[in-house]
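PROTEIN DESIGN WORKSHEET
SECTION A - STRUCTURE
LENGTH: 244
TOKENS:
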């Protein structure tokens, strides 16, 4: 059964661009599948932009998002090392000395994480970013799970890069940049929606994704509509009336 779900995920990832590429939703799907199938507690993705700067584009939990941002801001951590080297990087116990990334390790423990595994999103000599797996207990991600995570990352990388071959242009860079730009809108919209509906940021994001999929809309367009208070999505932004 697990093998079947892994195969289905690989097909899902490889088919995403054919069905219409919503970069943010595509990458969030990847983090969710890692958590569901690989025995890890959280996952995040960093991608490089047009200027060669790493950015956070997807995270399975709010704690992961905060930790990834901390890592970028402090320029220290396994995910950055993974991107720079193009090689997998792991730490099975972030509390054990010697501390390779002391600030990151402390921040990870504050967010409830005890171990990390980062695999590169890479094709040959080109590295686009890193897929990062987190565990709440000090233990290694099994070798088989790491190999599957690398397969997921490879398929995602190829799916993104195939646009270049299909269109003979800089579409890949534009798509990645659009995903990064969309993330800013989505982060703003999450906060607005959470405040309006009196829910958590994580719940707000789930509502946005569900609404976008049900209405066949890009997640970034839903986020823009929330920010501009578009009346067409009033059913999403209005707090449901409680029955007495």
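SECTION B - SEQUENCE
RESIDUE ASSIGNMENT:
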């Amino acid at each position: 059964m697990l093998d079947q779900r892994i195969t289905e995920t690989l097909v899902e990832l490889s088919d995403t661009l054919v069905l219409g590429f919503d970069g943010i939703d595509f990458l969030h799907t990847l983090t969710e599948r890692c958590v569901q199938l690989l025995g890890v507690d959280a996952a995040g993705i960093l991608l490089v932009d047009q200027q060669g700067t790493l950015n956070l584009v997807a995270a399975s939990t709010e704690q992961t998002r905060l930790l990834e941002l901390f890592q970028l801001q402090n320029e220290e951590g396994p995910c950055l090392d993974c991107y720079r080297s193009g090689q997998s990087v792991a730490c099975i116990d972030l509390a054990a000395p010697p501390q390779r990334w002391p600030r990151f390790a402390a921040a990870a423990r504050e967010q409830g994480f005890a171990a990390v595994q980062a695999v590169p999103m890479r094709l040959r000599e080109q590295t686009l970013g890193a897929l990062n797996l987190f565990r709440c207990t000090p233990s290694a991600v099994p070798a088989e799970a790491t190999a599957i995570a690398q397969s997921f990352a490879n398929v995602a990388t190829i799916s993104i890069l195939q646009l270049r071959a299909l269109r003979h242009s800089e579409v890949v860079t534009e798509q990645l940049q659009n995903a990064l730009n969309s993330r800013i809108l989505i982060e703003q919209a999450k906060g607005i929606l959470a405040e309006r509906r009196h829910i958590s940021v994580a719940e707000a994001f789930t509502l946005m994704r569900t609404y976008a999929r049900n209405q066949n809309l890009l997640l970034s367009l839903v986020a823009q509509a929330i920010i501009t208070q578009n009346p067409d999505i009033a059913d999403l932004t209005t707090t449901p009336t409680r029955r007495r």
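SECTION C - NOTES
The CA atoms of residues 83 and 129 lie 5 Å apart.
The chain has ten helices and five strands.
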